[in-house]
Amino acid sequence: MDVSKYKSLYLQETGEHISGIEAGLLAIEKTPGDSFALDNLFRHYHSIKGMSASMGYNPIMQLAHAQEDLLDKLRSGKLGVTSAMTSLLLKCLDAMKALVERVRADEPLDTDSSSLIEALKSCASGKEPLAPEPSAAPSAPVEGGHKLRLSSVMKVEGSVFDGLLASVGDLFMALSSFKALTHGTRSVEFKNGVHQIGKTINSLHESIISARMLPLEDLTAGLPRLVRDLANETGKNVALHTEGMDISLDRSILEGLGGPLVHIIRNAVDHGIEPTAERVQSGKPLPASIRIKASTRKDRVVIEISDDGRGMNRQKLKARAISSGIPAAKIEAMPDREVLKLVCLPGLSTAETVTSTSGRGVGMDVVKDAVEGFGGSLEIESTEYRGTKIILELPRTSSITKALLVETGGELFLVPISRIEKVIEVPSNELDAGTYAFAGAEIPLVELAASLGIKTGPRFSRTLIVLDASGTLSGTEGKTLAGLVVDDFGDEIDAYVKPLLPPMSRLRSAAGITVLGDGRPVFLLDIPQIILKALERA
Amino acid sequence: MPKKVLIADDTEFFRVALKDILTGGGYEVVGEATNGAEAVEMASSLKPDLVILDVVMPGKNGLEAAREISALKLPIKIVMCTSLGYEPIVEEAIRSGASGYIIKPLSETKVLNTLNSII
Asked: What is the DSSP string of A339-374?
């Protein structure tokens, strides 16, 4: 029997069973005697076994079979559920997931699962399994959170929507040239026609934007497992609570949020939450709690991740910052929220021990950069003994960028508003020094015309755009500022920015392109790149 | 006229595969049930010539469904379908009215030979 035609159905159904197993294992860990969950688990394994046997995927069949046997003992009450058992089953689930991914990628199923199968067999014969060694980086639950959940309607690859959105962008550009033509014609029919097409494209754009939205739940579904694994590894007692996970975000933002969210939670378990003995001694409740709460603020979403752990130690933070070269006087003058944000400086962390989960090197600086990378912001609140709260504010959709139109040497460019701190008119002679005094610091200046090789004439006054250049300069300041000098500035616009395709994508200074209402194409400037390039040259 | 078959399996994968095999073998699949209760209901309303029952299904399992379908006293043959390791259950099913069994993994010859020998 030719089974290859059933492969996609196999992958789809196996995926559903794997999700069911993950939820089921967490359920029986909480309520070991949950007979409904045990029955369901048994059937999930049974179905995977049967399907895998039919497809000839014997390694998956054997692993599922051994798990099914153990579940049969559990559901009939011959054996009781222990936490070592659920840990073993979760480990087997990860192995099974990895095998299914190999099926998807048409790779050979040559992974050796014999030790897992042996452990399952010994477990089913009534022996307590050995505690599984802690896994280095439990990343699987996060990957699992990235799938689309449109099951009540239909399943569509996310990339289809990327393509649709790109096509609408092309339509917007084509529309711009038609709009430019309407200025030179008296034909009312033509003008009305262009107007109608414009309305239709707008509504198409809105539909696609809303179709790209996914609930936060899709991302956070893997977090209970992550918290469980981290808590087990560190020997702490932690419960996760979520709220507002039905709020939807554009899938590209949701995808980008995965890494930062995991990192924040790892930090909370690793460094925020106290060891159980310490909590008992200081009379704090058990289990410790990590709370993720999402709410909307206009067209943005606010996600708060709080823990009830020991809070951040400001004295240690300050001491580390000083030892990394920031003047002590400057740190003492910092407002409290800036002091807390010191934790986002590269290489700075108050954690005393380096663990397998939080590790060294990748820290809150990466989280902050990632969140700011998709137009979001990060704030920290922390009270010693009471806990820490990280507040992320993010846009809900990503394809429209708010940008400021600037002009230099007769050419137009766009600067993303998210990067702009202040726009100032300055007499030209004050800019000759190459730096400018702003908010008590000398900020480096970048002349846009020179950086792009454009000629510009002498002017009495120029426009200085003070930019947040975080993520480009390896300075020691809390926020890195730089000044971009241009001739003039214009309107703030909502730009539909398209990514550049090769060979245009090799332009380091541009992050994308859009078309203005009059049909003129304009580049969106890649601020970090421009500043980096200019300062490298200096 | 082709013989009418009802399929009951909670896994879509097996329903699709069975339907392909049966259709290719000259049978008409008149219905697909996803659990035991549905199977009993559809057997009594669709009156197929034969019903293939998976043993492990949510709610009412295949064994219970087999008993209830036999109790309908309709001319419906029952074939049990299950995975390796469930042979004792199949024997019990035959005592409760099933005429034959298929052991997964499915193969075209296995399925069609079993069915052809029964009807």
From this structure: HHHGGGSTT----SS--TTT-SS--HHHHHHHHHHT
What the block records as the tokens of A404 is 């400021």
A471-484: per-residue pLDDT in tens? 554 443 456 789 99
Superfamily of domain A400-537 in CATH is CheA-289, Domain 4 (2.40.50.180)
Record: contact B84-A53, CB cut-off 8 A: yes
Q: Which CATH number fits domain A4-131: 1.20.120.160, 3.40.50.720, 2.60.40.1180, 1.10.3720.10?
A: 1.20.120.160
**Cα–Cα distance for residue pair A276/A138, rounded to 1 Å:** 22
The Cα–Cα gap between B53 and B7 comes to 7
> Which residue from B minimizes the CA distance to A5?
B17
Mean pLDDT of A352-370: 57
pLDDT score of B26: 93
Give the closest of B13, B85, B106 to A9, CB-based.
B13
Phi, psi of A286 (to 5 degrees): -125, 145
Rounded to a whole number of angstroms, the distance from the CA of A70 to the nearest CA of chain B is 14
Task: Count how many residues are written for chain A.
Answer: 538
C-beta atoms of B13 and A53 within 8 A: no
More reliable by pLDDT, A179 or A116? A116
Closest CA to B65 of B8, B3, B5, B1: B8
Average the pLDDT over A446-466 and give the result: 89
Report which of A75, A80, A73 is spatially closest to residue A38, judged by C-alpha positions: A75
* pLDDT of res. A142: 40
Dmax (CA) for chain B in angstroms is: 36
The contacts of residue A161 (CB under 8 Å, 6+ apart) are A208, A211, A212, A251
Say if residues A306 and A341 touch (Cβ distance below 8 Å): no
